[in-house]
Design a protein that fits this description.
- It is a single chain.
- By secondary structure, this protein is α/β, with parallel strands linked by helices.
- It has a domain of about 210 residues: 3-Layer(aba) Sandwich (Rossmann fold), CATH 3.40.50.
- Helices cover about 40% and strands about 15% of the residues.
- The strands form four sheets. The protein has a seven-stranded parallel β-sheet with strand order 3-2-1-4-5-6-11, with helices on both faces. It has a three-stranded mixed β-sheet with strand order 12-9-14.
- Helix 1 packs across helix 8 and helix 5 runs parallel beside helix 6.
- The mean pLDDT is about 95.
- Bound molecules: nicotinamide-adenine-dinucleotide (NAD) and uridine-5'-diphosphate-4-deoxy-4-fluoro-alpha-D-galactose.
- The site of uridine-5'-diphosphate-4-deoxy-4-fluoro-alpha-D-galactose (UFG) has 21 residues, from helix 7 and strand 8.
Length: about 325
C-alpha cells in the first residue's frame, strides 16, 4: 500500500512515516519545507533502512499536486500539512486560512479526480474550545477561540460536507491532544524555529542551556497545584494511531472522529518535575501571569479509539521526557 503524507517531514508526519515504513507500507511525501528540513528525509530513511519518495511542492499548487497522483498510485492520504502556531495565526489570519483551507480543498479535489477515497486528517483538541467537563468525548460541542483553531474547525466541516456529497469517501478526523516526545533513535523530534511556544520544546531548550528558564504561565488555576493541566501524548503513540485509523478506513466507515490522547492529565509542574528527573534538575522555572486564551484543564477520553480502533497510548511520562532530552542533546 502506498500512503501519501502531506507535511510528512514535519514533527508528527516524520514519526508516522517511520511507523508506516516499519509496518511495510510505501510512503510518498509532499512537503513545502516551510516548517521542516530536507535532512529529515535522510533521517527517516536511516532509521527504517527504506526509501521514501519526496516532492518539495506546496499543496496550494493544484497542478503540482496532480503530478504526484499521476506518478504514484496512491491508496490513502494522511493530511498533516498546515500552519499550526496559535499566536502567529492571530497576527496573520489570512495566511492561516489560505494555507490550511486551500491546501485541504486542493487535496480532496485531486483525491476525487484520481479515485483515492481514504483520508486521515490531523485535527486538534483545540476544536473543543472550552469544554464543559472532563474528560472530553468526541460528541462534545465544537468551537474555536483563534484563527488556527478555526481552520481546524472549518476543515472538519468541509470534510463532513464533502463526505456527505461523496459517500464513497472514508475520512478519519483525528483530534490530537498534546503531542510530545521524540523517536528513540534521537534523530527525529520537535525542533521549532525561533523561541518555542509550546511547553515541552521550551523545557528541552532550557535543559541544554539554550534558554535561561521556563516561565510557567499561571499558578492560580483550579488544578491540584495551580498550574495548567494537559493530556500529553508520546508522538510515537500518536503515529501508531494513524496506522490504526488507516486500517479502520479499510472497512468503509464513512466519516469517523477519534480523540488521540492518553486520558491522563499532567500539570506543568508534573512535566517539569518528571523532566528534571531525566536531566538532573537543569530546568529552572519561575511563575508568570496566565497566558491569554489558555484553559485550566484539558484531557481526552480515549475510549472510543480503544474500542473502535484497538489503539491506546502505551508510552509513559518518563518515556516522553527521556526521548525529548535525548533528541535535544543530539541536535545542538
Ligand atoms: P509541523 O509544522 O512540524 O509539520 C507540518 C508540515 O507541513 C511541515 O513540514 C510544513 O513544512 C508542511 N506544510 C505546511 N504547509 C504546507 C503546504 N501548503 N504545502 C506543503 N507542505 C506544507 O507540525 P506537526 O506538529 O507535525 O503537526 C502536523 C499536523 O498536526 C498539523 O496539521 C497540526 O496543525 C496538527 N496538530 C499538531 C499539534 C501539535 O501540537 N504538534 C496538535 C494538534 C494538531
Ligand atoms: N506553558 C507554560 N510555559 C510555556 C509554555 C506553555 O507554562 O512556556 C503551559 C501552558 O500555559 C499550558 C501548558 O503549558 O498550561 C501547555 O501549553 P502548550 O503551549 O504546550 O500547549 P496548549 O495546550 O496550549 O496547546 C497545544 C497546541 C495547540 C493545540 C492544543 C490542543 O499548541 O495548537 O495543544 O491540541 F490546539
Amino acid at each position: 500500500m502506498n500512503i501519501l503524507l502531506t507535511g510528512g517531514l514535519g514533527y508528527i508526519g516524520s514519526h508516522t512515516a517511520v511507523e508506516l515504513l516499519d509496518a511495510g507500507f510505501d510512503v510518498v511525501v509532499v512537503d513545502n519545507l516551510s516548517n521542516s528540513d530536507i535532512k529529515v528525509k535522510d533521517k527517516i530513511e536511516k532509521i527504517t533502512n527504506k526509501k521514501i519518495k519526496f516532492y518539495e511542492y506546496d499543496l496550494r499548487d493544484l497542478e503540482k499536486l496532480k503530478l504526484v497522483f499521476n506518478e504514484n498510485k496512491i491508496d490513502a492520504v494522511i493530511h498533516f500539512a498546515g500552519l499550526k502556531a496559535v499566536g502567529e495565526s492571530v497576527e496573520k489570519p489570512l495566511e492561516y486560512y489560505e494555507n490550511n483551507l486551500f491546501s485541504t480543498i486542493n487535496l480532496i479535489k485531486v483525491m476525487k479526480e484520481y479515485g483515492v477515497k481514504n483520508l486521515v486528517f490531523s485535527s486538534s483538541a483545540t476544536v473543543y474550545g472550552r469544554a464543559k467537563s472532563m474528560p472530553i468525548y468526541e460528541d462534545f460541542p465544537t468551537s474555536a477561540t483563534n484563527p488556527y483553531g478555526r481552520t481546524k474547525l472549518f476543515i472538519e466541516e468541509i470534510l463532513k460536507d464533502f463526505e456527505l456529497a461523496n459517500p464513497e469517501f472514508n475520512i478519519a478526523l483525528l483530534r490530537y491532544f498534546n503531542p510530545v516526545g521524540a523517536h528513540k533513535s534521537g534523530l527525529l523530534g520537535e525542533d521549532p524555529k525561533g523561541i518555542p511556544n509550546n511547553l515541552m520544546p521550551y523545557i528541552a531548550r532550557v535543559s541544554v542551556g539554550k534558554l535561561k528558564e521556563l516561565s510557567i504561565f499561571g499558578n492560580d488555576y483550579n488544578t491540584k497545584d495551580g498550574t495548567g493541566v494537559r493530556d500529553y501524548i508520546h508522538v510515537v503513540d500518536l503515529a501508531q494511531g494513524h496506522l490504526a485509523a488507516l486500517r479502520k478506513l479499510e472497512q468503509n466507515p464513512g466519516l469517523v472522529i477519534y480523540n488521540l490522547g492518553t486520558g491522563v492529565g499532567y500539570s506543568v509542574l508534573d512535566m517539569v518535575n518528571a523532566y528534571n528527573k531525566c536531566c538532573g534538575g537543569k530546568v529552572k522555572y519561575k511563575f508568570a501571569p496566565r497566558r491569554p486564551g489558555d484553559i485550566d484543564v484539558c484531557y481526552a477520553s480515549p475510549e472510543k479509539a480503544y474500542k473502535e480502533l484497538g489503539w491506546k497510548a502505551t508510552h509513559s511520562l518518563e518515556d516522553m521526557c527521556e526521548s525529548t532530552y535525548n533528541f535535544q542533546k543530539n541536535n545542538q
